[in-house]
Amino acid sequence: MIVGTNMMSIYNHRLELIKQLLSLKHSVSVATPFSGEEQNLINMGVNCIDVRLETRGKNPFHDLILLKDLINIFKNERPDVVLTFYTKTNIYGGLAARICGIPYIENITGVGSAIANGGLMARLMMTLYSQAVRKAHIVFFQNTQNQSLFHSKNIRMKKVLLLPGSGVSLERFSLVPYPSSDNYNFLFISRVLKEKGIEEFVEAARIIRKEYPQTTFHVIGPYDKEYAEYLMNAEEDGIVKVHGKIFNVGDFIRESHCTVFPSYYAEGMANVLLESAASGRPIITTNLPGCGETVDDGVTGYIVNPRDAYDVAEKIRKFISLSHKEKEAMGLAGRKKMERQFDRRIVVDAYIAEINQILSDSPHPTT
User: What's the Cα-to-Cα distance from 304 to each of 27, 193, 200, 261, 315, rounded to whole Å?
Assistant: First the structure.
């Protein structure tokens, strides 16, 4: 059973693992809030379970309801192994599996701003995390900073392993021809949050479009009410084009020249950067954990200072000044980096090895 906070993320980033498990004749369930993508998994033979969950909610009563719901789901479904992803479902999915006596594997896909910013909430969440991961069969980390954070807090774990993020599907995000047009398309692909660098992206777009009016800056991803007016105003001013939630970002990447992601969020590993680079597109991002690992500065893209819109604009300006051949070569170098370091098969193989070990140690599977 796979437990997560977002069905689209499960479908986009765990699909190859699900397919591999199904090919090995395992039955697979996914427990996460429904958002439309579940029908694709149902058509594949996956049992999908809708879960009540507030991704960014801080109401402890709602979290207790989530814990109770997951305990009930595990008791009803009786999975042999539980796989958890993302902070909230790592904590409460791990606790629920521990309470039910079910082997489980956790994946630290980033710690998020609540933990990264410190304070009382961070201490509370780390306390809960310490209980959730303690009995996990293995804890996968996606970057060394998150792994070091857990060790610095003296959080006990049976076994840990560093993975190259969620990896990237080199088949789904295949190398596509670089656009020949000089009407440049720059992409920001993410859930729209301040910490993801949306304001730096928009301000950089405002600067660049004054100098290069033929450029277009696209904002792709869901956004909350707090950013609706901000994005609407930026679009009305002709600064960006806002597309909202898009199922197939590959269509946009194919027509793009560069992906710009000035995030200072506590990422695990930024999937949008992996997907863009795998498609042969240069990337511009910060050197913070979860982003900096994905780019070789000056070779596959550029590094920018966090919270610095002027530096973002400067690197975009520098990118535009490159010849078409140089831009294309930068994208090709990014593709090769993904093939060497971030192939999703590395991640899938690691999961299959640990699942096989759990099943071999269990003489009487529950399903």
Answer: 44, 18, 11, 9, 7
Q: Is 258 helix (H, G, I), strand (E, B) or coil?
A: strand
| Alpha-carbon 221 to chain mean position | 13
Mean of per-residue pLDDT scores for the chain: 93
Q: What angle do CA 7, 10, 12 make, to 5 degrees?
A: 105
Q: How far apart are CA 18 and CA 15, in angstroms?
A: 5
Tokens of 66: 């989530």
110 Rama class: left (phi>0) / alpha (psi -120 to 50) / beta: left
Q: How many CB atoms lie within 10 A of CB 349?
A: 14
Residue 270 has pLDDT above 50, yes or no: yes
Helical residues (DSSP H) of the chain, grouped into ranges:
7-23, 38-43, 60-77, 87-100, 112-116, 120-133, 144-152, 198-211, 225-236, 250-255, 271-278, 309-320, 324-341, 344-361
Name the amino acid, one letter, at 258: C
Rounded to an integer, what distance in angstroms lies between the CA atom of residue 194 and that of residue 144? 24
pLDDT cut 70: percent of the chain above it:
96
CA 123 to centroid of chain Cα atoms = 24
Query: To 10 degrees, the CA torsion angle through 55, 60, 64, 65?
Result: -60
